[in-house]
Amino acid sequence: MSTLGKTSAQDPGLAAPSLTHAKDAVRYKFRVGLSIGAACAKLDSFCAQSYGSMTREDERGRGFTVPLPSNSQARLNGRHRALDVQVILDSVQSTAPALAAAAGSAAAPVHIEVAAELRAIGCSKQSAARLLREMGLPLLDSLRAHLLVQANSPAQQRFPWSRPMVVRAVYPDGSQGQPIACLSKDLSLSGIGFIVPCELDATEVLIDFPSTTHPPALTVPGTLVRARLCPDGRYEVGALFRLPSWGSASVASR
Fold first, then answer.
1. 26 in Cβ contact with 132 (< 8 Å)
2. What's the CA gap between 5 and 194, in Å, rounded?
């Protein structure tokens, strides 16, 4: 279930984000407690973590493309599917600093508005609409979470974590694909990076974490938000956990 539309638990004073759909794009606006310079630095790191290619760098934000897995037919036709991400940053006018100064307290935190626009490129209009829904929305989830996490919050960092595990594709009709043995690469509270020997043919997956104390694996649902073909033919993939929160979610075991 997507967390789009929820306010930040770290700063409940921030306005709720807004999500709108155009004919061929998804637009998402939200606020974060960062300076524009700090937000640009976070966008740079988000682009790198998403295996993206930067297309625009200026004081107003960033633009970059995030590659998506392509099927064999698309590759034969020379199509390279990707999400084009354009982010504009604007300062938010607020009376909070003046009120804080009048009260003799420390300066209020700076808030900026983030306006992100996503378009799917390298595919048909029908495929673009599906990709924006299945992969664009999780990418927006991940982008907002990345900007909301403060730089000095080590609990939200991505840590190297190499373990054998199993992933299974989940198709729109609810059926599941065959288990695929893979190797985890890194882990955070919001997602995981891993390497699979072949291309996954679904954006929704079930990730089976190994258990050393009990035979059943710990199973967590996820949504693929990035994928990159490695020189050795394997795929380096990133998935966002599809859980409301670690504290309140119930994780299925098989």
1. yes
2. 28
Residue 57 is encoded by which pair of tokens? 């760098």
What band does 54 get if pLDDT is binned at 50, 70 and 90?
very high
3-state class (DSSP) for residue 195: strand
Mark out the alpha helices in the chain (DSSP H runs): 36-49, 72-76, 96-102, 125-131, 137-148
Express each pLDDT in 107-143 by its tens digit: 445 678 999 999 999 888 888 888 888 888 888 888 8
The yes or no reply on domain 158-253 and CATH 1.10.10.10 is no
> What's the rounded Cα separation, in Å, for the pair 187 and 192?
5
- Which residues lie across from 226 on neighbouring strands? 238
Query: Thinking of the domain 18-154, which architecture would CATH place it in?
Result: 2-Layer Sandwich (3.30)
Q: Which of 35-49, 112-126, 140-154, 193-207 has the lowest mean pLDDT?
A: 140-154
Distances (CA, A) of 112 to 36, 47, 63: 7, 19, 17
Domain ranges of the chain: 18-154, 158-253
pLDDT at 43: 93
Instruction: Tell me what the mean pLDDT of segment 241-252 comes to.
Output: 46
Residue type, 230: C
CA–CA dist 151, 142 (Å, integer)? 15
